[in-house]
């Protein structure tokens, strides 16, 4: 049995006529008749009773028609599903990100283009999101300075960002145009946990300048750091893009050359072929081009 034989039977069973089945399949009537006869002879079963030009199903034919109805309905469902995935009529993408400030504009662009695609968003530091991508806990990640050298990863630069200082509105630095690393080393520093790239690049800058901070308070979330800054516990190295409006907090730039790093969109290489990931990368590319234009 092959699909041509089964499909000829299926259409003839639905149409109740070999000639109408031939017209629907765009075949000659003898071809349809031959395919069905070969099927019957191959399995030694009679599927139709022939009455001149008129045919009717036998009991075996009705049983087989019930099976082929389910078979071709499932085939059509599969075709519809794949078409939806190609055209992004629906679906789900799982995203991991180190913070909202870079991923949200991309998500907004993505949802504007594909409003029927759902998403989940996992937050963590760069190490956590990188590991989530490797272990396929997320489909795609937006994170800072991922570890290079993984052949099975695709990486696309999104935006280069610079480290400044968040301080409370009553902090002695609040009226300064910029601060130096030497001044920063003398301040109480509010730092993210190990695994935070912001912390890593800032500590590296201090080390390269042969400076050692006098006091560090470790706080594990951006929200808690922002509140600690507002309450006057110290100053926090923070990306320029991460500062949202809060009258209690001010951003003070670091004197050049200030530490910086690049945020990337990353995914497993084979995931690039999926419609949702491909569409997310396209949206990220559009947002990245916009940022490059305004950052010049």
Automatic annotation (TrEMBL):
Gene3D superfamilies on file: 3.40.190.290, Winged helix-like DNA-binding domain superfamily/Winged helix DNA-binding domain
The keyword DNA-binding is annotated on this UniProt entry: yes
InterPro entries: LysR_HTH_N (IPR000847), LysR_subst-bd (IPR005119), WH-like_DNA-bd_sf (IPR036388), WH_DNA-bd_sf (IPR036390)
Keywords: DNA-binding, Transcription, Transcription regulation
Superkingdom of the organism of origin: Bacteria
Keyword Metal-binding in annotation: no
A Pfam family matched in the record: LysR_substrate
Domain HTH lysR-type as annotated: residue spans: 1-58
PANTHER family, alphabetized: HTH-TYPE TRANSCRIPTIONAL REGULATOR CYNR, TRANSCRIPTIONAL DUAL REGULATOR HCAR-RELATED
Family from the record: Belongs to the LysR transcriptional regulatory family.
Name of this chain's protein: LysR substrate-binding domain-containing protein
Organism for this UniProt entry: Dongia soli
């Amino acid at each position: 049995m092959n699909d041509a034989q089964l499909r000829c039977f299926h259409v003839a069973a639905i149409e109740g006529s070999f000639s109408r089945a031939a017209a629907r399949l765009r075949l000659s009537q003898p071809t349809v008749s031959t395919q069905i006869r070969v099927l019957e002879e191959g399995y030694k079963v009679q599927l139709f009773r022939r009455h001149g030009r008129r045919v009717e199903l036998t009991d075996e034919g009705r049983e087989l028609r019930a099976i082929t109805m389910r078979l071709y309905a499932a085939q059509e469902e599969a075709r519809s599903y794949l078409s939806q995935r190609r055209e992004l009529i629906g679906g789900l993408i799982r995203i991991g990100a180190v913070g909202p400030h870079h991923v949200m504009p991309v998500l907004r662009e993505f949802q504007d283009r594909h409003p029927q695609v759902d998403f989940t968003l996992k937050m963590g530091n760069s190490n956590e999101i990188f590991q989530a991508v490797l272990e396929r806990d997320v489909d795609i990640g937006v994170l800072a300075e991922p570890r290079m050298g993984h052949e099975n990863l695709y990486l696309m630069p999104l935006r280069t960002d610079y480290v400044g200082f968040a301080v409370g509105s009553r902090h002695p630095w609040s009226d300064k145009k910029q601060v130096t690393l030497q001044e920063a080393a003398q301040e109480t520093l509010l730092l993210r946990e190990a695994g935070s790239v912001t912390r890593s690049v800032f500590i590296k800058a201090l080390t390269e300048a042969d400076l050692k901070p006098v006091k560090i308070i470790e706080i594990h979330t951006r929200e808690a750091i922002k509140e600690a800054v507002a309450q006057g516990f110290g100053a926090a190295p923070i990306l320029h893009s991460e500062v949202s409006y809060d009258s209690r907090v001010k951003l003070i730039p670091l004197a050049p050359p200030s530490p910086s790093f690049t945020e990337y969109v990353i995914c497993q290489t084979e995931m690039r072929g999926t419609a949702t990931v491909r569409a997310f990368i396209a949206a990220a590319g559009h947002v990245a081009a916009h940022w490059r234009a305004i950052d010049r």
